[in-house]
Write a structure and sequence with these properties.
Layout: H1 40-51, E1 56-62, E2 65-72, E3 74-76, E4 81-82, E5 88-90, H2 95-108, H3 118-121, H4 134-138, H5 157-166, H6 181-195, H7 199-207, E6 218-219, E7 259-262, H8 263-274, H9 281-288, E8 292-295, E9 298-301, E10 304-307, H10 309-312, E11 316-322, E12 329-335, E13 340-346, H11 353-366, H12 385-389, E14 393-397, E15 402-408, E16 411-417, H13 419-425, H14 434-448, H15 453-466, E17 469-480, E18 483-492, E19 495-503, E20 509-513, E21 520-525, E22 531-534, E23 545-549, E24 552-557, E25 560-566
Antiparallel strand pairs: 1-2, 1-13, 3-4, 5-7, 6-7, 8-9, 9-10, 10-11, 11-12, 12-13, 14-15, 14-25, 15-16, 16-21, 17-18, 18-19, 19-20, 21-22, 22-23, 23-24, 24-25
Length: about 575
């Protein structure tokens, strides 16, 4: 099995998972005793979200004092070990905020200027990216596109430098925007070169040092490791994620991912950063100031995304990470006017940290009571097992595609195979146009047909694992907001393989899973006989209704209704 993730863009638009598979994650018990270390109103609200499926940790810091420091669910279901505020989570792409701070700290020390060209600092760097400035790398405007190595590919610094140098630019530096993990690895190589102490040592001994001398976390793989008990991440298929132990070298993720810490430490570090205790106040202002405009009230800043008042009525900055093999999702937001930090991490696919922050963030910003989850999740009324058993089976659409229906715990799970079935089960919302979906599919096909530099590498990698790829068939696209996944069935020497890819507008791989399970949706009864809706406590998922009558299954959503007949 090959499973590869290149990371999602930072910011609240990133969604770790769009659809929840059956059994995705562990059982969801009541909150742990540490959850009481919260303002009572906040504690009750987050407790309700825990009952709706959230497993992880929450920390809210205002003017340096905690309003909430709580944990919910299980860190390890096999060991019956609960999450606590002291549980360590991988923070994924939030690492970029730390790398950006390291660069600004070096600038404070007079070792570089943000307008220095990276090739002048790293004379062994070859290729067009050498002309990019440090500022352009920080803002993802260098033009770098594509990946320089896999997350768990042993990659030494020199090999990473050479691989990044071979990447083509999507545009001349400073003329556009494309999110780049490779760009932040290049920044880590700058830290490695200029600090004289190495990236890992400089970050943990200097940049992550909190007021009082304590260090905020460490690394998920390798040393110095983040101290403390770790949460096991549970992937969308319910299996445990990567728990650490990769022997390295780590330059596939160095600088762009790989750090880990507790959620309270993440909140404290963020507060220290923006109040001028990690970098100088002038550099903290550089980080907080809107940089490259991305539209919709968002701007890229070094390691963060700035949201203006048009989004939620209050200016804030955010960064997020997740969607990888660890199975964690982390998000942190800084609200300058309130001097407040909100940090959340999750370790299951059921209700991610980002989904929770999207649900409660507007109320937090406005000072309103937090909203309650919708009537779904574990608290939703389950159906009787004998009623559900009659609905289990395979349902085929006349025009191709099928639904596989299974039942467990009073809920149905429907998976979709084929483009028509996927579109019915996961219709695109108002955030994305049909033209954008079709364009994404064409970029994925171009990638897998080897029409780009990265595509040729990807094709060679696939054939190394699965044998010759002799055919590609689109198997549907799911999307919400900025996150789009196109499913493709590959005809290979080892048989058909289902995969999904998320690519940016320049055709660079943002995330992928090979092999993949078909997209699936967990359903709960609506109250009507044989009628079901998505098990979605945030109310942000696909808006569909599924009805069963005899041997027929009807899925109704924005595109209309489709009916499938049960086979066998």
């Amino acid at each position: 099995m090959r499973r590869f993730f290149a990371g999602f863009p930072a910011g609240l638009t990133a969604v770790a998972l769009l659809l929840t598979a059956c059994g995705a994650g562990p059982s969801r018990p009541a909150r742990t005793p540490e959850a009481s270390a919260c303002d009572p109103a906040l504690g009750r609200a987050f407790g309700a979200w825990a009952e709706a499926g959230f497993s992880g940790s929450v920390a809210i810091l205002r003017d340096g004092a905690f309003e909430c420091r709580a944990a919910y669910g299980m860190a390890d279901t096999g060991a019956h070990r609960p999450n606590t505020p002291g549980t360590v989570f991988s923070i994924g792409s939030v690492t970029k905020a730390v790398t950006a701070a390291a660069i600004l700290r070096l600038a404070d020390e007079g070792r570089l200027s943000l307008d220095d060209r990276v090739g002048a600092i790293l004379p062994r760097l070859r290729g067009p990216v050498a002309a990019a400035t440090i500022r352009q790398l920080l803002l993802h405007t260098s033009g770098l596109n594509g990946t320089h190595g896999g997350d768990y590919e042993p990659l030494a610094p020199d090999a990473a430098l050479a691989a990044i140098g071979r990447l083509k630019l999507a545009f001349p530096p400073g003329t556009g925007y494309v999110y780049s993990n490779a760009g932040y690895t290049l920044l880590a190589l700058v830290v490695e070169h200029l600090s004289g102490r190495g990236y890992r040592d400089y970050v943990t001994s200097t940049v992550l040092r909190l007021p009082g001398g304590r260090t905020a976390g460490g690394f998920w793989d390798g040393s110095p490791a983040a101290p403390g008990p770790r949460a096991v991440g549970y992937l969308d298929d319910g299996k445990p994620g990567h728990r650490g132990g990769f022997a390295g070298p780590y330059w596939g993720v160095e600088g762009n991912g790989g750090l880990a810490m507790t959620v309270p430490d993440l909140a404290e570090w963020t507060y220290a950063l923006f109040t001028g205790r990690v970098v100088t106040p002038a550099s903290a202002e550089v980080i907080a100031r809107a940089g490259w405009p991305r539209g919709d009230g968002r701007s890229e800043t070094p390691g963060w995304v700035a949201f203006d008042r048009s989004v939620y009525g209050e200016r804030f900055l955010s960064t997020a990470g997740g969607g990888g093999d660890v199975g964690h999702n982390a998000v942190v937001a800084w609200v300058p006017a309130q001097r407040r930090v909100v940090a959340i991490a999750s370790n299951t696919a059921t209700l991610s940290a980002e989904a929770l922050l999207r649900a409660v963030g507007p109320a937090l910003l406005a000072g309103r009571p937090l909203p309650a989850p919708s009537a779904s999740g574990p608290a939703a009324t389950p159906a009787r097992g004998e009623d559900l058993a009659a609905m289990v089976g395979t349902y085929r659409l006349e025009r191709g595609g099928e639904f596989q229906v299974s039942a467990e715990g009073g809920r149905l799970t429907v998976s979709a195979t084929g483009a028509s079935a996927v579109r019915a089960l996961a219709p695109p919302g108002s955030e994305v146009t049909e033209a954008a979906l079709r364009a994404h599919e064409q970029r994925v096909l171009a990638l897998l047909n080897g029409q780009t530099q990265e595509g040729r590498r990807e094709r060679a990698s696939l054939e190394k694992v699965f044998g010759a790829v002799s055919g590609l068939t689109l198997a549907g696209t799911v999307a919400k907001g900025a996150d789009t996944r196109t499913y493709v069935t590959l005809t290979t020497g080892r048989g058909p393989v289902l995969a999904w890819y998320a690519v940016n507008e320049e055709g660079g791989v943002m995330a992928a899973q090979i092999p993949a399970k078909p997209p699936a949706l967990t359903l709960v009864p609506t109250g009507g006989a044989g009628r079901f809706r998505p098990d979605d406590p945030t109310g942000a998922g696909p808006r569909v209704e599924v009805a069963f009558e005899g041997r027929r299954m009807t899925v109704t959503g924005a595109p209309g209704a489709v009916t499938a007949e049960r086979s066998g």
